[in-house]
Design goal:
single chain, 206 residues
Length: 206
């Protein structure tokens, strides 16, 4: 196999393995840390609400309740969080092996049958180590961990990363679209108050 083609294949596999490792660590971090932080924030707001009228408002209380419900969702992962940590460690080990392989291939200027067999083994181990289900927003944290906290220059040397295509999660764009639609809808309804009045009357009659 051509050396440049081999280095590109290794870099692409390293991206898959490295990002997946960060995704598993992100799920673990959220499950491990989020409930305590949510509880602390709720407690602080509850105490401050005794002195600040704004924090005692209904919409603030409703928001705290919703956040509390989110903490219940997080607890569903509590029994399996160690599995995510162990999977992240396993995937990190595979990433290190890919890094060594990339350096070896670059220095020897060849990609041998032994290297191909090792790459196939890493691919199989990668599929076996991954857990399918991940907690909400773990992808956002994984992007931050992989692209901003981790050293990926050796991967980017053979696998180009574009800012808007790779470094920003697709769900961020989806969220922006939803927010824009909501703002546009709210703005349109604000300019047509008669529709809101008609809807209110219809609800009253029912």
């Amino acid at each position: 196999m051509d050396q440049q083609v081999a280095l590109k294949l290794i870099a692409e596999k390293a991206y898959d393995v490295g990002y997946s490792a960060k995704l598993h660590f992100s799920t673990y971090d959220i499950v491990e840390n989020a409930p305590g932080r949510i509880g602390l924030i709720s407690l602080v707001i509850g105490v401050l609400a005794l002195y600040i009228d704004f924090l005692a408002a209904k919409h603030v209380s409703a928001l705290i309740t919703v956040i509390g419900i989110c903490s219940l969702y997080i607890t569903y992962y509590a029994d399996t969080k160690e599995q995510y940590f162990q999977a992240g460690n396993k995937l990190t080990q595979l990433l290190d092996q890919l890094r060594v392989m990339s350096a070896r291939c670059k220095s020897s200027q060849q990609f041998t049958a032994t290297d191909q067999a090792e790459l196939d083994r890493i691919t199989a181990d990668f599929g076996a180590a991954c857990l399918r289900k991940h907690i909400l927003f773990s992808g956002w944290l994984a992007h931050k961990k992989f692209f901003w906290d981790h050293q990926i220059d050796w991967i980017a040397e053979h696998r180009e990363f574009r800012f808007f295509r790779d470094k920003i999660p697709f769900s961020v764009y989806a969220l922006i679209v939803v927010v824009l639609i909501a703002l546009a809808g709210g703005s349109w309804l604000a300019t047509h108050p008669e529709l809101l009045l008609s809807l209110k009357e219809a609800c009253t009659h029912e």
